[in-house]
Specification:
The complex is a heterodimer of chains A (853) and B (381).
Chain A (H helix, E strand, L loop, with lengths): L12 E2 L5 H7 E4 L45 E11 L4 H10 L11 H11 L4 H15 L14 E4 L3 E4 L2 E3 L1 H10 L2 H6 L13 E7 L8 E2 L5 E2 L2 H21 L4 H19 L20 H5 L5 H6 L7 E8 L7 E5 H6 L1 E5 L5 H10 L7 E5 L5 E3 L5 H7 L5 E5 L5 E5 L9 E9 L4 E3 L4 H4 L7 E5 L4 H11 L20 H10 L4 E3 H11 L12 E3 H6 L8 E4 L7 E5 L2 E4 L4 H4 L6 H8 L2 H22 L12 H26 L11 H27 L5 H8 L5 H8 L3 E2 L1 E2 L2 E2 L24 E2 L9 H36 L3 E2 L5 E2 L5 E3 L19 H7 L2
Helix pairs in contact in A: 7-8, 12-13, 16-21, 17-21, 20-21, 22-23, 23-25
Chain B lengths: L12 H9 L4 H18 L7 H13 L6 E3 L7 E3 L1 H10 L8 E5 L2 H4 L4 H8 L2 E2 L4 E7 L4 E6 L1 H6 L4 H11 L3 E5 L4 E5 L6 H12 L2 E3 L6 E7 L2 E7 L3 H4 L11 E2 L2 H8 L1 H18 L6 H12 L19 H5 L4 H11 L2 E2 L4 H6 L21 H6 L1
Antiparallel strand pairs in B: 1-2, 3-11, 3-12, 4-9, 5-6, 6-8, 7-8, 10-11
Helix pairs in contact in B: 3-13, 4-12, 11-12, 12-13
């Protein structure tokens, strides 16, 4: 596969305008007729589909280069225009040039002395500033005579889109062109034009380039009918009108007819370049949909640049629904066998692996693990089929490449959109598994932001050794453990794994030694020496088996009984494992383990931790029930009392307001003050019910365990289920919208009370009243809208940021520079610390002091 | 990939002083410093790291989780603060007209303890003529505008009718102002003015500033950390800072352009960092400050604040293709053709377009190997 090496790189790309000379020179055909095909369906000579312009039909050969379909890249043609046509994209430049140059001698409208001055100044200006500077200079001079030839000047205006007027008289493109022609090269420079590549008169077209057929291929419909590309349609219009214009001029037609045709040609040329011009009706298909011409092809998200050039498509990729599998390693991905049969990895045959690779060839494309293709040293790719297996086996020798099926241990890049940060694309090890979903360890859901409600993910298989090496060294899950955003672990335990470890490390967890061994073994631990040799072991002791013996850590727990988390010499002495320590993006436990040992250890540790948590729950049993939200009668009574008193308070406030006795807060009206006060009373009431619920809740109930460990939910959720849902706030206020003077028709007008403005007294368990339900739906809809509005906004911000900053990199001298070498920062982040190697953005001095003897 | 610790690692001063503060014995301190230098060296960012993109990711990714809201400031009506995503967009856009400009005015000693706080606050608040008048009416017969002044309100802001009259005289141009018995009359000097002009005039007269500092529409004295400060809606640093009672070292505005104007670009950079950080912190998100620094530095690198838009930082790029791939590609391609620009493919997107390695990270390294001559070649030499 020698031809796969990069021999040449593009060093630079230059931009310039096409001069009429170049247009003619690069053209391989002159187009003279708008016809496309003759009766036999063969392209007409001198037509728009001329075979000299490239081939798009199988079987034909290009008359210019002699190559076949797909080999021929296409060739330009040209037409000479009967009359000059203004190029729409240069309108602004032409107008400015006409204004700043003399109408007679075409010199710049500045006296010699000022020209000298300006050319000095212009050297320091960028093009855009040069232009505005000279425009300003000339309008300021207010001289309506040319300083060179003393000719009187008139105001040039533009009648959009393409008509120029001087003193309300039209200037024809012919005259414009002749004026532009006369502008000296030196004067062009004053308007920041490089006359070597962009002479002003080239902005008025006399010859028109016809793009190659290959960039406007026609599609053959099922009926055998040909459907031409939009550009071909447009070019047809241009050629036809140009032809008519020629004929009319030659026949000596009246000027008015010629002018009409000329304008029509101008319209067609303009819409050829840009079919979205403000003052022009867009050119349309017969069906009424606007044609997609050159500008539309390039710009916008679906245009050439963003869709095809910056965004690429890949082979060797797969996509399907994901599902969880905690028995997989964190850095593994379960791939269904059907996928493994299609995805392949090229492996070069050598003397040493020929027997190994022959096995794959022997299995063929249908039997796993087999091979799909064999590439011969001369680069010929052969698809393996049942019938050629035998022959290929004989033929196989060093130098061949076998594209074998994906196997366990191969590396692949796993991705979930939106790929917002680099942890959205991580390298995983393949595990080929039965069934039809991609599987991943639930602990890596967080960096991908994945869940299993139908999410799909993509898999990409790198095809070269270089790509594989980079993927493995830079993108493997363990290299991505620490987030570059905040310097803490992004992968931690989630949900059940947290609840499990929480229960395990709680004070009263005790287990017989046999059972503990059983538990640990199910997690994958085989060395039980660390487990104390006594009949009954505590949960903390079981947990400590996982921790390496030389690890010390001091941290915090969420638990009130054991707020301090102490690990000494690999033994968990105090503290309960919860989200603060095991969760992602919080706490230094995982970070320190990662730092002290290495990334692979951390991944392995996390995997075990995760399985341990789940194993504990499996042994113990863990479900939630509606009874978790039951409250003892006292509690309900207390809650009712709170409501009664707060209701009274609110009523008091309202009557105070109605009798104008409410003293307003400074700067607020009485009505606003009332709102604030009511909100305060109600939120107090809600908080109190929350406290009561928390107080009476059974700490051993599973709902509370989940909330306390941080696995899922919080006390507030429980309070909403058991106590009361609380005030529904729309845009930071109580609900006010709705009918005239009231929120819903079931309330009295001007009712300021709690229920009429969205306070939900019921709990979710009790069930909501219709009005309450409606208010909740209102708020729910509002938050949905908020999300829907936010996503595109933040997406755009992100696109702008990444576009603006993607070239910044750290140089060898430690500075941050952009692509042009301009220094942005002298030292990255003022101290040069890499966040993804730091501990939450800093170096922990206490930790160092502790570790140093 | 173990590298030997270098002898000359320059550890930042803040870390060193933290070690000093721990009061360790000499020997231990020495060892700690050694370990610190070692760790610091390992933690340093490596050449080629694509820090820009990492920073963009670090701000872009959490921004999807932010809420889209402005919240009301407790106490004063019509005083709300733009927070969340809209505020971040506002700052990074480099927008000059903020949705909610604000200032935190810190005060000098006696005032910061609460002395005359209300008076000071009111004295900087912008007061319009309509705020102190009961009625502004048009007298069509005499084609003049009559303003009836509310004496109570006037005395509330500490102004006499005479003072008001003379300030008004100074403020208006092209109008003759008369102090009548119970109203102030404004008359157009040029008699040819039509009724339309008078109506327009009335609107103008309504919002004549008679007292305070322009732009400051609300003031709110609050106690923060044992001292009184004045929070204002509307911002005018230039006018506020020279005031005798203002502690000019701590007073801040949330308008970055004003800060740039008054205090310079370095202050503006700091303001960008702080403003964005405030929002992110407020939302309970965790983003390292280094990323914000990099964004702020990119915005300020040219010496002027440039927003992260096609008119700002993106315009500064040298590469035509990079600019074209962002927004308005046609415009950039046409411009490029006029100067005959050459794109040297030094940045990322161009190379993506051409399927070439990008010049960051591992793509930055160009490996040159010297191939050893074969035996035949050696002989030939």
């Amino acid at each position: 596969m020698e031809e796969n090496y990069v021999y040449k790189k593009v060093g630079s790309v230059s931009f310039a305008m096409l001069s009429p000379k170049i247009i003619k020179k690069m053209a391989s055909a002159k187009v003279v007729t708008p016809e496309l095909y003759d009766k036999e369906g063969y392209p007409v000579d001198g037509g728009l589909m001329d075979v000299r312009l490239g081939v798009i039909d199988p079987g034909l050969r290009c008359k210019t280069c002699g190559s076949r379909l797909k080999e021929c890249i296409g060739h330009f043609g040209y037409i000479s225009l009967a009359r000059p046509i203004i190029h729409f994209n240069f309108i602004a430049i032409i107008l400015a040039l006409l204004r700043i140059t003399c109408r007679d001698c075409s010199k710049i409208l500045l006296p010699e002395s000022k020209i000298q001055q300006f050319s000095e100044k212009a050297k320091q200006l960028n093009p855009a500033d040069t232009r505005s500077a000279i425009k300003k200079l000339i309008t300021q001079s207010k001289n309506n005579k040319c300083p060179h030839c003393k000719a009187r000047q008139y105001k040039v205006t533009i009648e959009k889109p393409t008509t120029f007027l001087e003193n309300d008289r039209r200037i024809s493109p012919i005259e414009i062109r002749s004026r532009l022609e006369k502008i000296p090269d030196d004067d062009c420079a004053f308007y920041a034009l490089n006359s070597n590549v962009a002479r002003p008169e080239w902005m008025v077209l006399t010859v028109f380039p016809i793009p190659p057929v290959t960039m406007r291929p026609s599609i053959t419909l099922e009926t055998g009918e040909r459907s031409e590309d939009d550009l071909t349609h447009k070019l047809g219009d241009i050629v036809r009108i140009n032809q008519r214009l020629f004929e009319n001029i030659n026949a000596g037609a009246p000027e008015i007819i010629v002018e009409d045709l000329w304008d029509l040609l101008q319209y067609h040329v303009t819409t050829f370049f840009d079919n979205d011009v403000a003052q022009l009706p867009p050119a349309r298909h017969r069906s009424g949909q606007p044609l997609k011409t050159i500008s539309e092809r390039i710009r916008s998200k679906e245009g050439r640049i963003r869709h095809n050039l910056v965004g690429k498509r890949t082979n060797f990729s797969a996509r399907t629904v994901i599902s969880p599998d905690p028995m997989l390693g964190l850095n593994e991905v379960g791939v269904p066998e059907i996928m493994a049969l299609k995805l392949s990895v090229p492996e070069r045959v050598t003397e040493w692996n020929i027997e190994y690779l022959k096995k794959f060839v022997k299995n063929g494309p249908k039997k796993y693990p087999g091979a799909n293709y064999v590439i011969r040293p001369d680069g010929k790719k052969k698809k393996l089929t049942e019938d050629i297996i035998e022959a290929t086996l004989e033929e196989l020798q060093p130098g061949y490449v076998v594209e074998r099926h994906l196997m366990d241990g191969d590396k692949a890049i796993f991705n979930r959109q939106p790929s917002l940060h680099r942890m959205s694309m991580m390298c995983h090890q393949i595990r080929v598994l039965p069934f039809k979903t991609l599987r991943l360890n639930p602990a890596v859901c967080f960096p991908f932001n994945a869940d299993f409600d139908g999410d799909e993910m993509n898999l990409h298989v790198p095809q070269t050794e270089e790509a594989r090496a980079e993927a493995e060294l830079l993108m493997l899950v363990q290299t991505q453990l620490i987030s570059p955003r905040y310097g803490l672990s992004v992968i931690g335990c989630v949900q059940d794994a947290i609840s499990g470890n929480y229960l395990l490390t709680k004070k009263d967890f005790k287990l017989k030694r046999e059972l503990a061994v059983d538990l640990l073994a199910s997690v994958g631990i085989t060395d039980f020496n660390e487990l104390p040799k006594k009949e009954i072991v505590s949960g903390k002791e079981i947990f400590s088996v996982l921790i390496p013996p030389d690890f010390d850590f001091v941290g915090k727990s969420r638990s009130k009984e054991e707020p301090e988390l102490i690990i000494k010499s690999g033994k968990l002495l105090s503290g309960v494992m919860d989200k603060n320590n095991l969760g992602e993006g919080s706490g230094l436990l995982l970070r320190n383990l990662h730092k002290k040992y290495d990334a692979s250890f951390a991944v392995d540790f996390l995997g075990k931790l995760f399985r341990l948590g789940i194993a504990v729950l499996l042994k113990r049993g863990f479900t939630t029930t509606i009874a978790d939200t039951d409250l003892p009668p006292d509690a309900s009574k207390k809650i009712n009392e709170i409501f009664a008193s707060s209701e009274k308070e609110v009523q008091a406030l309202i009557s105070q307001f109605n009798s104008n006795n409410l003293e307003p807060f400074p700067g607020r009206s009485a009505r606003e003050t009332l709102e604030l006060k009511i909100s305060e009373v109600l939120s107090r009431a809600r908080n109190e019910t929350g406290h009561i619920v928390a107080e009476y809740a059974d700490d051993s109930s599973h709902t509370i365990i989940m909330a306390n460990s941080g696995a899922r939910g919080n006390i507030l959720n429980l309070a909403q289920m058991a106590g009361c849902v609380g005030q529904q706030a729309l845009r930071g206020k109580r609900i006010e919208k709705g009918f005239n003077g009231r929120t819903l028709s079931c309330f009295k007008k001007h009712d300021l009370g709690t229920e009429a403005h969205g306070f939900i007294k019921s709990s979710f368990k009790k069930g909501l009243k219709p009005a309450e339900f409606f208010f909740q739906a209102m708020v729910g809809r509002d938050s949905l809208m908020d999300t829907a509005l936010r996503t595109p906004k933040s997406g755009y911000l992100y696109r702008r940021l990444s576009n603006a900053m993607q070239d910044l990199r750290v140089e060898y001298d430690g500075t941050v520079r952009d692509a042009s070498g301009r220094i942005i920062q002298f030292s990255y982040g003022e101290d040069g610390i890499d966040v993804s190697k730091s501990e939450g953005g800093t170096i922990s001095i206490p930790r160092i002091i502790q570790s140093v003897k | 990939m173990t590298t030997k610790p270098k002898d000359d690692v320059a550890v930042p001063g803040s870390l060193l002083s933290e070690v000093k503060e721990a009061n360790l014995s000499d020997l231990k301190e020495k060892n700690v410093l050694k370990a610190l230098a070692d760790e610091y060296d390992k933690m340093k960012i490596k050449p080629g790291e694509s820090v820009g993109l990492v920073a963009a990711e670090s701000i872009g990714e959490p921004s999807t989780q932010m809420t889209l809201n402005t919240f009301h400031f407790a106490g004063v009506a019509e005083m709300n603060i733009t927070t969340g995503l809209p505020r971040i967009i506002e700052v990074l856009d480099g927008r000059k007209n903020l949705a909610t400009p604000m200032m935190d005015i810190y005060l000098k000693k006696p005032y910061s303890q609460g002395q005359d706080i209300k008076k000071i606050a009111l004295s900087i608040k912008e007061t319009h003529l309509q705020d102190v008048s009961t009625e502004i009416s048009i007298n069509l017969a005499d084609s003049r505008i009559e303003v009836f002044v509310d004496d109570a309100k006037l005395s509330e802001i500490g102004m006499s009718k005479q003072v008001l009259f003379s300030t008004l005289k100074g403020e208006v141009k092209g109008l003759s102002v008369d102090l009548r018995k119970d109203f102030i009359s404004f008359k157009v000097k040029n008699k040819e003015e039509g009724i339309n002009a008078i109506f327009k005039m009335k609107e103008k007269i309504k919002t004549l500033v008679i007292k305070g500092i322009k732009g400051i529409s609300q003031v709110l004295p609050v106690k923060r950390n044992n001292e009184f400060i004045i929070i204002t809606a509307g911002s005018n640093l230039k006018k506020i800072l020279p005031m005798p009672f203002v502690d000019e070292t701590r007073t801040v505005s949330n308008n970055i352009f004003e800060i740039e104007d008054v205090l310079g670009i370095e202050a503006a950079r700091q303001a960008i960092i702080e403003e964005v950080y405030k929002v992110i912190e407020n939302q309970g998100l965790n983003v390292d400050i280094r990323h914000l620094m990099l964004v702020a530095d990119t915005m300020c690198a040219s010496g002027k604040i440039q927003g992260v838009t096609r008119y700002g930082t993106v315009k500064e790029k040298v590469s035509v293709l990079a600019r074209a791939s962002f927004e308005t590609p046609i415009k950039h391609l046409i411009e490029a053709s006029l100067y005959g620009e050459t794109d040297h493919l030094k940045s990322v997107v161009e190379n993506v377009m051409l399927n070439q390695p990008v010049p960051v990270g591992t793509g930055m390294i160009k490996l040159v190997t010297k191939e050893e001559d074969t035996k035949e070649e050696k002989k030939a030499k």
